[in-house]
Amino acid sequence: MSYVVLILGMAAITWLVRTAVFVLGERLVFPPIVRTALGFVPVTVLTAIIVPMAVSPHGQGAELTWRNPQLVGALAAIAVSVLTRRPLVTIAAGLGVFFLWQGVVLH
């Protein structure tokens, strides 16, 4: 039951924030520093989701070894991203390395 309340609470907060921005529209003006900070939110959230999954895929502490296909795929994706700056190529390369590493190298 507590999960239902938690999910409903998160949904209500999300709805309120989105509705406030929609209703206030142009009247809602952020200072330049806040606008700059908001530009970093997507990258920060994505990093907060991906890094723990890559470093500790089983939730038992850091697995910083060559036997961690999530980490190897993430490192490959970082390298491709730095070289190409193309999101789709980065995702494809990271997934390709992950599946290749998991299927060929580890088995």
UniProtKB/TrEMBL annotation:
TM stretches of this protein: 6-25, 37-55, 75-101
Keyword terms, alphabetized: Membrane, Transmembrane, Transmembrane helix
Pfam families registered for this protein in UniProt: AzlD (PF05437)
Protein name: AzlD domain-containing protein
Native species: Paraburkholderia dinghuensis
